[in-house]
Amino acid sequence: MSGFSNPVTEAELHAWLDGELPEERRAAVERHLADNPEVAQRFERYRAQRSLLGQSFGPLIDQPLPDRLTPPFTARDHAEKLPASRGRAAWWGTAIAASLLVFVAGGASGWLLRDRIVLRAEPLTAAFIADAVAAHRVFSVEVRHPVEIGVDEEAHLVNWLSKRLGKNMRCPKVTRGGYQLIGGRLLADSVGPVAMYMYEDAAGRRITLYIRPSPNTSGSAFRFAQDGVVRALYWQDNGLALAVAGEADRDTLSGVAEEVYGALNS
Amino acid sequence: MTDDDAIPGPDMSPPDIDDRAIAAHVPRLRRYATALVGNRSDADDLVQDCVEKALANRHALRDPSKLGGWLMTILHNLHISSQRGRRRRGAEVPVEDLADDLALSAPPADRGAVRDFVRAFAQLTDEHRTILLLTGMEGLSYREVAEVLELPIGTVMSRLARAREKLRVLLDGGTQQVVRRIK
């Protein structure tokens, strides 16, 4: 049954606001809004509310973290069914006991930890995807400074990033999906330098390409990951670990990933 | 080359959940927790509890790409149980400090609006704050919110409609539009 006979519901209006309305209902919802100015006005207020939410709380993400929220974290051994409202005193008891244990076991466990980290530097871990997605979230919403060096200085950008990463960083300038390179930046993660390129389509949607040197690795196939609305395709190729991230659908991302792969291997 | 075996290479072991993977989510968890509880110290306690619990139960997560949502679920459940305790104790930390801090991070022309917004937001119920943050701030889809909160999607949608209307009345005044049925 198509639009005309179905009355527009409150749920559909919210779905429209949240970009979750099925395409075939869009015309009906927009007609309903045009015919009912008081409803349209109410949903404009909801939209304003959402942007105030982002404006008010958004900056919290840049707050420096206290030590207790930075790694290495202390794992609780018996996490089961501890009431969350337990006093901090109990926590301190555990912490003191744990620190004594670390003190006693210090020499050995320190080395164990080191081995573990060295071994894990090789495969693409969840941390790599998490870093790529986090960088995407941080920079793709930047209005004034999304990139450090714009595409108008493309040669300089590519040379600079290639030099810092010790690898050829050529990437496509325009993709078949209509995404254009707008520039890039150098980032750092715990392994070292990372290059990030950013693409934008005509509607202002952004896709980022996150590249970390990953020596001693051969190629791997594309893998898919999703975190919230951000999807990512990641792979290894020619001593690099790469991730293409964006709010775009999987087909669009894999199209871009294939073009990047092609450009880096041309 | 979307095929898994299109390029010869080592079989990648499933990504591991380690400190670094979790640490990448901490800034977001902390932002969410601070907006939810209205002050930084309780938020940091909550995030720390969440990280500890996640590490202790890391093997329960089958699909590492769902780490973000999984952490949100843990944080959400911890928050609910800590609220039960708080209600009994009756302690409440005022949101004023946070409202002032956040107003200072905004451009001067928007400071009043940000302060008013943070205060109004703090008057909502936990349920309403949660749903508005997950959709409006974290950008989760209805389905993802339903997964994080372990609720049916219809409940997510009706709760979101009520939360938006409640907040609108707090911010703009006027009478609340009663949302009885949303479908």
- The whole-angstrom Rg of chain B is 19 Å
Query: What helical percentage do the residues of chain B reach?
Result: 55-70%
Tally of helical runs of chain B: 9
- Helix-strand sequence of chain B: HHHHHHHHH
What's the level 1 CATH class of the domain at 12-93 in chain B?
Answer: Mainly Alpha
| Unreliable stretches covering 5 or more consecutive residues of chain A | 77-123
Low-confidence stretches of chain B: 1-15
Helix- and strand-based class of chain A? Answer: alpha+beta
Q: Portion of residues in helices of chain A?
A: 40-55%
Task: Please outline the major beta sheet of chain B.
Answer: none
Average pLDDT number of chain A: 77
What would CATH call the architecture of the domain at 12-93 in chain B?
Answer: Orthogonal Bundle
Explain this structure to me?
- The complex is a heterodimer of chains A (about 270) and B (about 180).
- Helix content of chain A is about 45%, strand content about 20%.
- Chain A has about 270 residues and is α+β, with helices and mostly antiparallel strands.
- In chain A, a hairpin with a 5-residue loop joins strand 3 (about 190-200) and strand 4 (about 205-215).
- In chain A, helix 2 (about 25-35) packs across helix 3 (about 35-55).
- The termini of chain A are far apart.
- In chain B, helix 5 (about 95-105) runs antiparallel to helix 6.
- Chain B has nine helices and no strands.
- The radius of gyration of chain B is 19 Å and the shape is globular.
- Mean pLDDT of chain B is about 85; it is low at about 1-15.
- Chains A and B meet through helix 1, helix 3, helix 5, strand 5 and strand 6 of A and helix 1, helix 2, helix 3, helix 4 and helix 6 of B.
